[in-house]
Design goal:
Helix content is 4%, strand content 56%. With 733 residues, the chain is mainly beta. The protein has 2 domains: 17-113, Immunoglobulin-like; 126-732, TonB-dependent receptor, beta-barrel domain (Maltoporin, Chain A), CATH 2.40.170.20. The chain contains 5 helices and 41 strands.
């Protein structure tokens, strides 16, 4: 074949290459904004087209869409066809609306899609999770649950109460494309938004656009409901289960011709919050409150303004061992989070898109030690304030799309350390108020070179000034290549990228009495440097008879790898940087078509090894081996499978199976025994307004030591079996 030399050239590149992709959503409705169900929607680009149909609410979506210019075409029986020129951006997109006019009898429109020659947008490592998948996966829609990620994303798991993805625990969050900036390490436990407020979750674990810098082990963009698909509608969700757990939410929304709103209030409580350090569940309550408001205004066909406000507060008891409980230990972790942001999008008649996203983010983590703590009682109250703007300009030029822009932000921390010996007097009572700023510019070119080849290249430039001043120039290059099918076989797409990332360091510092205390414990503290990562990824995507399989091999090399550790027995957790880290892994994801008109299967598997190398180069200076050693969150094999079935009488059932080969045992090299969990969810719809479900997590009540790492108690045991009943009531107001 003539393409064979190109395949060899692609596979022999010294690095793998990238192309960015996102998920776009839309609604088809009639002139009175009533949804049009089962309409056909085409997404056309200059070289290909893709088709889908709307659901009962008139909603549609396309996964793995590259930024650029497209045409949406909507058709349905009894309506005139509607064509809409759109531009998909990488920094958050509106919910696109297709309004279909009633068709006269003389009108007749036939629309056919061109064969898709290349799905260039599969080059990045991406997973999209829908609201329905979150609702039906057992436990995934509870407040502070991360199962919406760990059930569907390969290589994602929670250990020592922290989310880890691809061997790291520094992830970036967005709400509707608005950055939720946080440079701190291991200080917050849950997600930044209640899962009940997510209409879709877009996850990328590699191959990010040059637009993005910062924490690079995972990018999570939680898209909230817009309200354009609601007409004075509300939904009340209530649940109750063992361990006194409840998670309740009231949401409501509506729209006019040009504006829409969505708002929600939620609250939760459980006697089973964080992972416990022993099989017994002692002093482990959690309670939280949250609120979200989303307002969208289409000022014209060219301008849209989207404003978002999110508030969240969570109180956690730090769980005890039986000995700690008998001693009266009563530590707490108090967390607060506030995000206020907006996105202004201007689209010119030529398809040029200007987007600006100013944001304000406040985050607080307060560890409150109980009066019976020994040998020290700690109050560690950190408050971080972030403010900035992300602006991008997208210019379509035929087969090319140019993206450029800048991101600027400032950070101000206000941290109070209050450490008292018990018995004894105060060791330290200090306040630290460091500040930092970051300025970044980016440029990227996406080129659809041929119907079978897509190329991307860009650079992200950063200057950071805080406790240290650093600069970085991070290249990003990528490609995808469609191989010719043989005898009508599957059309295999090769994809890959090479990218560099710079992660700004936390603003953690100590001085005065606390520094003296640190020195007395045999440690030192020096300012942290930013982590610098190099990532390679190569893989292939195979569609076969409705099934979709994706394989990826990746490698991440990090210098000044950000981690954390405890200062002896003080409960003070300070960040540190290891000289280097290396994570090598293989990932497989599988998505089935509808099986027997009833079931769908999703499988995510990861095999990886996560290692680091000393010495410690910043932060809490302690002993670390000069050679390579395994990180405490190293787990070689992780498997998650989700099977969802539609049953007769408007009922359904979902089963989630999770397997882990075991995390590092102490300092290793041995690992803890393998383990597995099964979750079950069953539900039924009663008419149009009411649904009920029965949910189980850890159905077999498997109890085992999950890890024995140095965070929140030292060891962590798997949660016992939980069950809860949930009701959803939809109403109009």
């Amino acid at each position: 074949m003539r393409l064979f030399p190109l395949v060899l050239l692609f596979l022999s590149l010294p690095f793998s290459i990238w192309a960015q992709s996102i998920t776009m959503q839309g609604i088809v409705h009639d002139p009175e904004h009533r949804p049009v169900a089962h309409a056909t929607v085409l997404l056309e680009s200059p070289s290909a087209a893709r088709a889908t149909t709307t659901n009962d609410n008139g909603e549609f979506s396309f996964d793995s869409v590259a930024p650029g210019g497209y045409t949406l075409v909507g058709t349905s029986k009894g309506f005139a066809a509607k064509r809409l020129s759109i531009t998909v951006t990488a920094s958050g997109n509106p919910v696109f609306h297709l309004e279909l006019a009633v068709q006269s009898q003389s009108q007749q429109v036939t629309v056919s899609a061109k064969a898709v020659q290349l799905n260039r947008e599969t080059s990045t490592s991406q997973t999209t999770v829908t609201a329905l998948q979150i609702q039906r996966a057992p436990g995934a829609d509870r407040a502070n649950s991360l199962a919406m990620i760990t059930d569907f994303v390969p290589g994602a798991y929670v250990v020592h109460n922290m989310l880890h993805v691809r061997g790291g625990h520094q992830e970036s969050w967005f709400l509707d494309g608005i950055p939720v900036l946080n440079t701190n390490i291991a200080s917050n436990v849950g997600p930044v938004v209640d899962p009940g407020n997510i209409s879709s979750l877009q996850v990328q674990t590699g191959g990010y656009s040059a637009e993005y810098g910062g924490r690079g082990y995972g990018f999570f963009d939680a898209m909230t409901p817009s309200g354009f698909n609601l007409n004075n509608q509300a939904e009340l969700t209530a649940s109750a289960g063992n361990f006194g757990q409840t998670h309740d939410q009231l949401s409501f929304g509506s729209h006019t011709q040009r504006a829409a709103y969505y708002a929600s209030l939620d609250g939760n409580f459980s006697q089973l919050g964080l992972y416990a350090p022993s099989p017994e569940v002692l002093h482990d309550n959690t309670a939280g409150l949250g609120a979200l408001l989303s307002v969208t205004y289409n000022a014209s066909d060219e301008d849209q303004l989207h404003v978002l406000a999110s508030l969240r507060g969570d109180n956690y008891q730090i769980p005890n061992t039986p000995a700690q409980q008998a001693s009266g230990i009563a530590d707490r972790d108090l967390e607060r989070d506030t995000l206020i942001g907006m996105i202004w999008t201007h689209t010119s008649p030529r398809g040029i898109v200007l987007t600006s996203s100013p944001f304000y983010h406040f985050n607080r983590a307060n560890f409150v030690g109980g009066p019976s703590d020994t040998p020290f009682v700690l109050n560690d109250n950190r408050r971080s304030l972030y403010y900035g703007d992300l602006t991008s300009l997208i210019i379509p030029l035929g087969a090319q799309t140019l993206t450029s822009g800048f991101e600027v932000w400032g950070e101000h921390d206000d941290t109070l350390f209050n450490l008292r010996a018990n018995p004894g007097s105060a060791v330290s009572a200090q306040r630290f108020t460091p500040s930092a700023d970051s300025e970044a510019a980016f440029l990227e070119d996406s080129w659809h070179a041929t119907p079978w080849l897509g190329l991307n290249g860009g650079v992200h430039l950063t200057r950071y000034s805080g406790l240290v001043t650093e600069t970085a120039a991070d290249p990003r290059v990528g490609a995808s290549l469609l191989l010719p099918s043989w005898r009508r076989g599957p059309q295999v797409t090769l994809h890959g990228y090479y990218a560099q990332y710079y992660q700004q360091p936390p603003l953690d510092t100590i001085s005065g009495p606390l520094l003296n205390f640190t020195l007395q414990q045999g440690f030192a503290f020096v300012p942290l440097q930013g982590e610098r990562d190099k990532q390679w990824d190569a893989g292939l995507s195979v569609p076969l008879h409705g099934w979709f399989v994706n394989f990826d091999h990746f490698r991440t090399d990090a210098s000044h790898f950000l981690d954390h550790d405890e200062l002896e027995s003080s409960d003070i957790f300070l960040p540190l940087t290891d000289a280097a880290a290396r994570v090598i892994g293989n990932e497989v994801t599988l998505r089935s078509p509808e099986i027997a008109h009833r079931a769908r299967l999703r499988v995510a598997y990861s095999n990886q090894i996560a290692r680091a190398r000393g010495p410690v180069t910043g932060g809490l200076i302690k002993f670390a081996p000069a050679g390579w050693f395994l990180l405490d969150h190293d787990q070689r094999n992780t498997l998650n499978a989700v099977l969802t079935t539609n049953l007769p009488w408007q009922s359904w059932a979902s089963v989630v199976y999770t397997y882990g080969s075991g995390f590092l045992d102490g300092d290793g090299p041995a690992h803890l025994p393998p383990n597995s969990l099964v979750g079950l969810s069953m539900g039924k719809q009663f008419g149009e307004s009411l649904s009920a479900s029965l949910n189980f997590t850890n159905l077999a009540n498997a109890r085992y030591l999950l890890d024995n790492s140095n965070t929140f108690g030292g060891t962590h045991w798997q949660y016992p079996r939980q069950f809860y009943v949930q009701l959803r009531w939809r109403l109009h107001y």
